Amino acid sequence: MPFTLASILIDTADLEGESTFWHHLLGGTLTRTPTHHFLQAEGFPVIVLQLAPDHVPPTWPTPEIPQQLHLDLRTDDLAGVTQRALDAGAHHVTSNVYKSPSGHPFCLREG
Predict the structure, then answer these.
(1) 25: part of which helix (H) or strand (E)?
(2) Buried b (16+ CB within 10 A) or exposed e, 27-49
(3) Which of 6, 55, 66, 104 could form a disulfide with 13 if both were Cys (CB 3.0 to 4.6 A apart)?
Protein backbone atom coordinates (compact mmCIF):
# COMPACT_ATOMS: atom_id res chain seq x y z
CA MET A 1 0.00 0.00 0.00
CA PRO A 2 1.70 3.25 -1.10
CA PHE A 3 1.62 6.30 1.13
CA THR A 4 2.08 10.01 0.56
CA LEU A 5 3.16 12.47 3.20
CA ALA A 6 0.13 14.77 3.37
CA SER A 7 1.20 17.19 6.07
CA ILE A 8 3.74 18.03 8.74
CA LEU A 9 2.43 19.40 12.05
CA ILE A 10 4.52 21.75 14.15
CA ASP A 11 3.44 22.57 17.71
CA THR A 12 3.93 26.11 18.95
CA ALA A 13 2.78 28.34 21.78
CA ASP A 14 3.16 31.34 19.42
CA LEU A 15 0.99 30.41 16.45
CA GLU A 16 1.30 33.74 14.63
CA GLY A 17 5.06 34.06 15.14
CA GLU A 18 5.89 30.50 14.09
CA SER A 19 3.61 30.50 11.04
CA THR A 20 4.90 33.90 9.93
CA PHE A 21 8.46 32.59 10.18
CA TRP A 22 7.82 29.52 8.00
CA HIS A 23 5.72 31.55 5.55
CA HIS A 24 8.51 34.12 5.19
CA LEU A 25 11.11 31.37 4.70
CA LEU A 26 9.20 29.06 2.34
CA GLY A 27 6.70 31.38 0.64
CA GLY A 28 3.39 29.92 -0.48
CA THR A 29 -0.02 30.66 0.96
CA LEU A 30 -1.04 30.73 4.60
CA THR A 31 -4.58 29.99 5.77
CA ARG A 32 -5.43 30.77 9.39
CA THR A 33 -7.94 29.37 11.87
CA PRO A 34 -7.88 30.19 15.59
CA THR A 35 -5.92 27.01 16.45
CA HIS A 36 -4.16 26.01 13.22
CA HIS A 37 -2.36 27.80 10.39
CA PHE A 38 -1.94 25.89 7.12
CA LEU A 39 1.05 26.71 4.92
CA GLN A 40 1.01 25.46 1.35
CA ALA A 41 4.43 26.00 -0.23
CA GLU A 42 5.66 24.60 -3.51
CA GLY A 43 7.57 21.35 -3.11
CA PHE A 44 6.27 20.65 0.41
CA PRO A 45 3.36 18.79 1.94
CA VAL A 46 1.02 21.08 3.84
CA ILE A 47 2.78 22.43 6.91
CA VAL A 48 0.30 22.79 9.75
CA LEU A 49 1.27 25.06 12.62
CA GLN A 50 -0.75 23.93 15.60
CA LEU A 51 -1.43 26.01 18.69
CA ALA A 52 -0.04 24.19 21.72
CA PRO A 53 -0.19 26.68 24.62
CA ASP A 54 1.97 24.46 26.84
CA HIS A 55 4.63 23.82 24.18
CA VAL A 56 8.12 23.87 25.64
CA PRO A 57 10.81 24.59 23.04
CA PRO A 58 13.48 21.94 22.63
CA THR A 59 16.86 22.74 24.15
CA TRP A 60 18.66 20.57 21.60
CA PRO A 61 21.60 20.19 21.14
CA THR A 62 21.71 20.10 24.94
CA PRO A 63 19.82 17.03 26.19
CA GLU A 64 17.26 18.49 28.62
CA ILE A 65 14.45 18.69 26.03
CA PRO A 66 15.24 16.79 22.81
CA GLN A 67 14.32 17.99 19.35
CA GLN A 68 10.73 17.19 18.48
CA LEU A 69 11.07 17.74 14.75
CA HIS A 70 13.98 18.28 12.41
CA LEU A 71 13.69 19.38 8.79
CA ASP A 72 16.52 19.25 6.25
CA LEU A 73 15.99 21.87 3.55
CA ARG A 74 18.04 21.84 0.33
CA THR A 75 18.59 24.89 -1.84
CA ASP A 76 20.66 26.04 -4.79
CA ASP A 77 21.11 29.43 -3.09
CA LEU A 78 22.45 28.58 0.35
CA ALA A 79 23.73 32.08 1.13
CA GLY A 80 20.46 33.73 0.07
CA VAL A 81 18.24 31.26 1.91
CA THR A 82 20.42 31.46 5.02
CA GLN A 83 20.02 35.23 5.08
CA ARG A 84 16.27 34.88 4.47
CA ALA A 85 16.01 32.45 7.40
CA LEU A 86 17.90 34.82 9.70
CA ASP A 87 15.82 37.80 8.54
CA ALA A 88 12.66 35.78 9.28
CA GLY A 89 13.81 35.15 12.86
CA ALA A 90 15.82 31.92 12.74
CA HIS A 91 18.49 31.40 15.39
CA HIS A 92 21.85 29.99 14.26
CA VAL A 93 22.88 26.92 16.30
CA THR A 94 25.95 25.49 14.61
CA SER A 95 27.32 24.99 11.10
CA ASN A 96 24.21 24.64 8.93
CA VAL A 97 21.74 24.10 11.81
CA TYR A 98 19.20 26.75 12.80
CA LYS A 99 16.13 26.94 15.03
CA SER A 100 12.74 28.43 14.27
CA PRO A 101 11.29 31.02 16.70
CA SER A 102 9.60 28.15 18.62
CA GLY A 103 12.91 26.32 18.89
CA HIS A 104 12.42 23.63 16.23
CA PRO A 105 15.77 22.78 14.59
CA PHE A 106 16.28 22.62 10.84
CA CYS A 107 19.25 22.37 8.49
CA LEU A 108 19.95 24.37 5.37
CA ARG A 109 21.96 22.40 2.82
CA GLU A 110 23.30 23.17 -0.63
CA GLY A 111 22.17 21.02 -3.51
Answers:
(1) helix 15-26
(2) ebebeeeeeebbbebeebeebbb
(3) 55
Provide CB contacts within 8 A for 12, sequence distance 6+.
18, 19, 49, 50, 51, 52, 55, 102
Mean pLDDT value across residues 51-80: 88
Q: Can you say how many angstroms the Cα of residue 37 is from the centroid of all Cα atoms in its chain?
A: 13
Enumerate domains of the chain plus CATH numbers. Answer: 7-53+66-110 (3.10.180.10)
- Give pLDDT tens digits for 40-62: 999 999 999 999 999 988 888 88
Q: Record the pTM.
A: 0.87
